[in-house]
Amino acid sequence: MPVNQYPKQAKQWGIIGPGKIAAKFAAALAITEGAELAAVASRDEARAGEFAGKFGAPRSYGDYGMLAKDPGVDAVYIATPHGFHCEHALLCLQQGKAVLCEKPMALSNRQVQEMVDASRTHKTFLMEAMWTRFLPMTGKLLALIVEGRIGKVKYVRADFGFAPPFNPDGRLYNKALGGGSLLDIGIYPLFLCQLLLGEPSGIMAAAQLAPTGADDSCVAALHYPDGALAVISSLFSCQTSITAEIAGTEGIIRIPTPWYKNNRLTLSRQGLPDEEFRLEPVVNGFEYQIRETMRCMDNGLIESPDLTHAFSLSMSRVMDAIRKQCGVFYPGE
User: Mean pLDDT over residues 111-125, rounded?
Assistant: First the structure.
């Protein structure tokens, strides 16, 4: 959203699933002009009330359906584990609520298609909360490429890895909750490749599976119709550099750690001094996607032109293909 362009009318937000990521989102709402937290829902009513009190929401519910039916809520942020995204998004879309659904949009392409169909049927906004898309860094990256500063993009590499404790019942490893490194953090490197190169025509993937059957680590090599290549990796087994590089026929752009939420990048071209670009500091990061959601709502859109339904459907197809090669399947597949 351009500077000083605020929503025509303040948007009342609801949050489903008051966990750690929801706390960050609620903090972002507090610093976003025209956004207000109106309600919170959890299966645990006491937990919803505690979260609402902490972040100043006037209403809390122990039932997700009650929030979806709340006439005072304009938009809902879905922050439950991946395995419930589809169910909870449909609940809200069917009540005419705009939905910003935490990434990944859902467990599979089939579920994402169901959500998109509901958005179109009910003429209600739906977007995957791929917040990196709306950061100033991403805008600058795209501008440099459009300007031809690195020539034609031929190679993209990005990683994301950290080493959490193994908990078979936690959301990172429990397949019933959508556990696995690809869906949780591998989606970031895949997003970058998708943004710059589109959908791959060839995929070679491998993974190390945890005892639960979820992918503890995953790597994929992607091939594109124009000959470009990409390598992505996601790991729960160790800390990685969390950096990215985009190489073209005339130069390379490097994004330092953590690449997915940085405010600087470096352009290198042979025979010329490196250029470093510093963008506005990222205060929270989620405020940019909140502004985009409200801008689209004000303009009567059911999808963002910068993060379309087709984009999320394509990412889910690629993740399905990667998982299939790695032998990772979720309940119901």
Answer: 98
